[in-house]
Amino acid sequence: MPFSVKALGQARSSRSTMAPDSCCCSPAAMQRRLPILAWLPDYSLQWLKMDFIAGLSVGLTVIPQALAYAEVAGLPPQNLLGLQNIPRQFFLQVYHTFLNIGETRVGDAVLGLVCMVLLLVLKLMRDHVPPVHPEMPPGVRLSHGLVWTATTARNALVVSFAALVAYSFEVTGYQPFILTGETAEGLPPVQTPPFSLTTANGTTSFAEMVQDMGTGLAVVPLVGLLESIAVAKAFASQNNYRIDANQELLAIGLTNVLGSLVSSYPVTGSFGRTAVNAQSGVCTPAGGLVTGALVLLSLDYLTSLFYYIPKAALAAVIIMAVAPLFDTKIFGTLWRVKRLDLLPLSITFLLCFWEVQYGILAGTLVSLLILLHAVARPKTQVSEGPVLVLQPASGLHFPAIEALREAILNQALEGSPRRCAVLECTHVCSIDYTVVLGLGDLLEDFRRQGAALVFVGLQVPVLRTLLAADLKGFQYFSTLEEAENHLQQDAGTQPYNSGGDPVPEHKVALLKA
Question: Of 103, 273, 279, 430, which cross-links 2 as Cys (Cβ 3.0–4.6 Å)?
């Protein structure tokens, strides 16, 4: 589903920056949930012209792509060589492709390669079309418009060319291509999605259907939502407006719920078609209405023509649409910026050859482990001197307490002579119960060794937590200088305030509250 830009961006920007309204039926709230109320009152004929052109361009792109993706979603893959009965798993696909390379259909292979070359040439032409200037002669502007239309709708143009070639062979009685075949006319009947499936082998229950979906049940919505937000943010940054992420997710969710009533496969935002939409000069979401109308008209009046579309041409559309998404530059960028990020990228990339969901899951787990490692091994700045000062560079949570405890003990108590230590907690904004227990044990370790550990820079929530825990020997100060002076004077083990005096009971009670 393409996202509109420009004036749509202004509408999004206006609604995303509005202050929250307590009434869900207020005009502001209604505009946030129904964007048409924001742009329709100011709609103009100029916008109508641009929306119509953009909607037509996207429609000519989306129809052949939808046919191609439907092949991938519901039927065995057709790898461009006309091979059949090839497994879906990537490595098995490669193996069986080379195993059956002798069965390659020459017609499909040649047509597929020709379609790929045509798509590439048209794309290069589209990227290098010079901009139109008002002083250009009318003939030049007309030719520019024709070239722009042909290159923008290149998918439809190439698929139509392939269908025409296939029909020419059909007339002669010889068909060298595998064709799409019959396509049902019109929309499927509107009905609730089936929660059981009856086949010749029996009935598949809803629980079994969910089990068969496996991890895809979670991966498909997750990837869809991530892609939608990524598309919206990318075009928002290009067109200087802000997005309402909740609205984007609401739109995608509602679209898929309604789509399930007509047997649609899951849909999400599309980088390619959104780019076509933006480059076509779309002004408002009305461009999507034109695209939808074109698709519906095609379902009613053009499905008979879909019969002659060769599957090799659809394979070429898929390959040329997906190939630009492989960005080899990201490896060099990550190598320069942060090499550790290459690990989840490489694991995800390699395992996606096996199964996409396994690749995404493995990449997510590796990223989580990297994050946990950073949390469990926080960098600690150490300042040597008569009093050892340790400053954790990040927050303290349960995975980090053991590493921090070992670092403090090794630095302060393992050497000779034993030294008192100051834990500078300016960057610690929250702690959990495990951290409290670990700090209690640490204080006890210092007490047994005849040394002291005090705290500096505690934020109020952390201080309240530690005071509520009533740790034995817990002392805190406002500044590092006060803590060092106190330790050098070797004053008792009571809680002290910023002046080195015991904390009044009423203040301790207030902090514990």
Answer: 273
HSE, side-chain direction, 13 A CA sphere, residue 246 = 6
159 part of a folded domain: yes
pTM recorded for the entire structure: 0.58
Return the H-helix or E-strand segment holding 423: strand 421-424
In a domain, 109, yes or no: yes
Residue 6 backbone class (left: φ over 0; alpha: ψ -120 to 50; beta: rest): left
Asked if 425 and 456 touch (Cβ cutoff 8 Å), the reply is: yes
Nearest partner of 277 among 288, 289, 266, 268, judged by Cα: 288
Q: Which two tokens stand for residue 198?
A: 């009856």
Q: Does the pLDDT value for residue 67 go beyond 60?
A: yes
The pair of three-digit structure tokens given for residue 58, joined into one six-digit string: 């996207």
The yes-or-no verdict on residue 468 having pLDDT over 60 is yes
Distance, first Cα to last Cα, the chain? 53
Smallest CA-to-CA distance from 315 within 1, 59, 70 is with 70
Same domain for 495 and 353? no
Number of domains present in the structure of the chain: 3
Locus of tokens 């560079």: 393
For 281-302, how does the pLDDT look when each residue is reduced to its tens digit (9 = 90+)? 778 888 888 888 888 888 878 7
pLDDT at 42: 82
Rounded distance between C-alpha atoms, residue 272 and residue 392, angstroms: 46
Host domain of residue 367: 327-375
pLDDT in tens, 367-390: 889 888 878 887 888 888 778 888
Query: Among the ranges 65-69, 94-98, 347-351, which has the highest mean pLDDT value?
Result: 347-351
The verdict on residue 38 lying in a domain is: yes
Query: Phi first, then psi: what are they for 438, rounded to 5°?
Result: -65, -40
Radius of gyration of the chain measured on its C-alpha atoms: 32
